[in-house]
Write a structure and sequence with these properties.
Blueprint (H helix, E strand, L loop, with lengths): L1 E2 L5 E5 L2 H10 L1 H11 L7 E4 H9 L48 H11 L9 E4 L6 H15 L5 E5 H14 L2 H9 L3 E5 L8 H16 L3 E6 L11 H7 L3 E4 L5 H18 L8 H10 L4 H15 L8 H12 L1 H4 L4 H11 L4 H5 L5 H17 L4 H7 L5 H17 L1 H16 L1
Parallel strand pairs: 2-3, 4-7, 4-8, 5-6, 6-7
Antiparallel strand pairs: 1-2
The structure holds adenosine-5'-triphosphate.
InterPro entries: AAA+_ATPase, Chromosome_initiator_DnaA, Chromosome_initiator_DnaA-like, Chromosome_initiator_DnaA_CS, DnaA_C, DnaA_dom, P-loop_NTPase, Trp_repressor/repl_initiator
GO molecular function, one term: ATP binding
Subunit structure: Oligomerizes as a right-handed, spiral filament on DNA at oriC.
C-alpha cells in the first residue's frame, strides 16, 4: 500500500494486469477492509507500478501514508514500505504469476523462486541456459520483481550483457568507471541477461569477472542467463567461464506438449480477460495452437495474440478451419500441407546420404544418430505427432529419446552452422514438396 496524491491511499500492483484483475474482483472488499482502519473514509485508489512511478516522478505523490487514526497494535497493519526505485529494465508482465511451470522449466522455476526469496543460497552464481524463447528472460524478470517485493530496501540491478558492455565502454570513454563499478558492485542482487553477448569483448569480460568475484566475496547474489551452458561459451575467456560455472548451472528445456497447452490456456485466459472477451476458444482450437504452431513459446505467444486480436468477440465460436485461416501466417509449413513422419524420414535420409531404414535402425554412430535426431526434430516441428508416437515410428524408441533429440537439435541450431544449414535446407524441401 502506498500514499497517493493528496494523501489518498493507493494500492500499487506489480502489473497492469494485476490492477485490472483486482479492480474487477477484489477492490470492493479491499475498500471495506481499508475503511475499517480509516474513519476518514478516504477512497482507496489502485494503480499499477508504472503509473504509480509516473505520478511519483511528476510530483503527484508527495505525502507519506499515515492512517488518520492510529491502528491498534492487535489489528492487522497494511505495510507502507515504498521501494526506493523501480528496477530499471524489468518488464511488468514478466512475473512468476504469468510464468507457467512445467516439464522443461520446473527446476529452473524452483531455483528462481528460491533466489527471489533471498533464501540462504549455497549456489552463487546461478546460471540459467536454454534455447531462445523458452523463458529465461521471463524468469530473470520474475526474480527481480519478487526479490524486490520481499526486500524493498535491497539494491537489485538488472542488465542485459549488451547493456553491461555498452555502459562500461561509455564509462571508460567518459573516465567514469568508478561510478559504474559502484553501481554494479553495490548490488545485493545482480541479474545479467544473455551473458553470451559478452563473448569476444575483452575489457567487458575483465570487468564482469571482477564484478562477479567482488559480489560473491561480499555474499551478494548473482544470476545469469545465456543460450548455452558456461562450458560452451567459447568466446568467453576460460577464467570467467569457470567462475560462471562455479555455482548452480541449470538448464531450461524446450516445452513439451502439456506445457505448451498450459501456456496457451494461461495466455488466452489473460488476454480474453484483458480485452473483455468472455469466451475461450474451443478445445480443438487450443489443441491446434499447442500442437501445430512451430517454434518456441515466443512464436506460440505470437499465434495466441494473433488469434485473439483477429477473432475479437468471435473467439469462442471459431471453428478449427476459421482459426487455421486466421493463423496462416504464423503456421508456415504446418497449415499449408500435411507433412508425414514417413516423408520426413525419407527426405532426411536422402539429404544425409542414408537409407530410411538407417534412421529406424539401432545404429548409433554419429553419422546416423545425428540425422535421426534432426528427423525427430523435424517431426516435432511439422507434424502433430506426440513424443511417444514419434519414438514408435523411429524403430520403437522411447519418448525420452525423442525429447533428448529435440533438445539436442535446438542446441545445435544455435551452436553449429552446418546443422542449421541442413535443417534449413530440409525445411525448404518439405515446403516445396
Ligand atoms: N513457461 C512460460 N510461461 C509463460 N510464458 C512464457 C514461458 N516461457 C516463455 N514464455 C514467454 O515466451 C516469450 C519468450 O520468453 P523469454 O523472452 O523469456 O525467452 P528467452 O529464453 O529469454 O529467449 P531469448 O534468449 O531469445 O531472449 C516471453 O514473452 C515469455 O513471457
Amino acid at each position: 500500500m502506498k500514499p497517493g496524491p493528496y494523501g489518498d491511499p493507493v494500492l500499487v500492483t506489480p502489473t497492469a494486469y494485476a490492477r485490472d484483475w483486482i479492480s474487477k474482483n477484489a477492490i470492493r472488499r479491499a475498500q471495506e477492509l481499508w475503511q475499517q482502519h480509516d474513519p476518514d473514509a478516504r477512497i482507496l485508489d489502485i494503480l499499477c507500478r508504472v503509473d504509480y512511478d509516473d505520478q511519483v516522478r511528476t510530483g503527484g505523490i508527495v505525502t507519506a501514508l499515515v492512517p488518520s487514526t492510529p491502528v491498534a497494535a492487535s489489528e492487522p497493519v497494511v505495510e507502507a514500505v515504498v521501494p526506493a526505485t523501480r528496477i530499471s529494465g524489468l518488464q511488468d508482465r514478466l512475473t512468476f504469476d504469468t510464468f507457467v511451470p512445467g516439464r522443461g522449466n520446473e527446476f529452473a522455476y524452483t531455483m528462481s523462486r528460491q533466489v527471489a526469496s533471498w533464501a540462504d543460497g549455497h549456489f552463487n552464481p546461478v546460471f540459467f541456459h536454454g534455447p531462445y524463447g523458452y523463458g529465461k528472460t521471463h524468469l530473470l524478470n520474475a526474480i527481480g520483481w519478487e526479490a524486490q517485493a520481499k526486500r524493498p530496501d535491497a539494491r537489485i540491478v538488472y542488465l542485459t550483457a549488451e547493456k553491461f558492455t555498452s555502459t562500461f565502454v561509455k564509462a571508460l570513454m567518459d573516465k567514469s568507471t568508478s561510478a559504474f563499478k559502484d553501481e554494479v558492485r553495490g548490488a545485493d542482487l545482480l541479474l545479467v541477461d544473455d551473458v553470451h553477448f559478452i563473448g569476444g569483448k575483452t575489457s567487458s569480460q575483465e570487468e564482469l569477472f571482477h564484478t562477479l568475484t567482488s559480489l560473491i566475496e561480499n555474499n551478494r547474489r548473482v544470476v545469469f542467463t545465456a543460450d548455452r551452458p558456461p562450458t560452451q561459451l567459447n568466446e568467453i575467456e576460460a577464467r570467467l567461464r569457470s567462475h560462471l560455472s562455479s555455482g548452480l548451472v541449470c538448464a531450461l528445456d524446450v516445452a513439451d506438449q502439456s506445457l505448451r497447452m498450459g501456456i496457451v490456456e494461461r495466455k488466452l485466459g489473460q488476454l480474453s480477460q484483458r480485452l473483455g472477451v468472455a469466451q475461450c476458444p474451443r478445445a480443438e482450437v487450443m489443441q491446434f495452437l499447442a500442437d501445430r504452431v512451430p517454434g518456441s513459446i515466443r512464436e506460440l505467444e505470437g499465434a495466441v495474440n494473433t488469434l485473439v486480436a483477429s477473432a475479437g468477440a468471435r473467439l469462442g465460436s471459431l471453428t478449427l478451419e476459421e482459426a487455421m485461416a486466421l493463423l496462416q501466417p504464423n503456421l508456415k509449413v504446418a497449415v499449408e500441407r500435411r507433412v508425414t513422419v514417413d516423408e520426413i524420414q525419407k527426405l532426411t535420409a536422402d539429404h544425409f546420404g542414408l537409407k530410411q531404414a538407417d534412421l529406424l535402425s539401432e545404429r548409433r554412430t554419429r553419422s546416423v544418430a545425428r540425422p535421426r535426431q534432426v528427423a525427430m526434430w523435424l517431426c516435432k516441428q511439422h507434424t502433430t505427432r506426440s513424443y511417444p508416437d514419434i519414438g514408435r515410428r523411429f524403430g520403437g524408441r522411447d519418448h525420452t529419446t525423442v525429447l533428448h533429440a529435440v533438445k539436442k537439435v535446438e542446441e545445435l541450431l544455435q551452436a553449429d552452422d552446418q546443422i542449421a544449414r541442413d535443417v534449413e535446407a530440409l525445411t525448404r524441401k518439405l515446403r516445396s514438396n
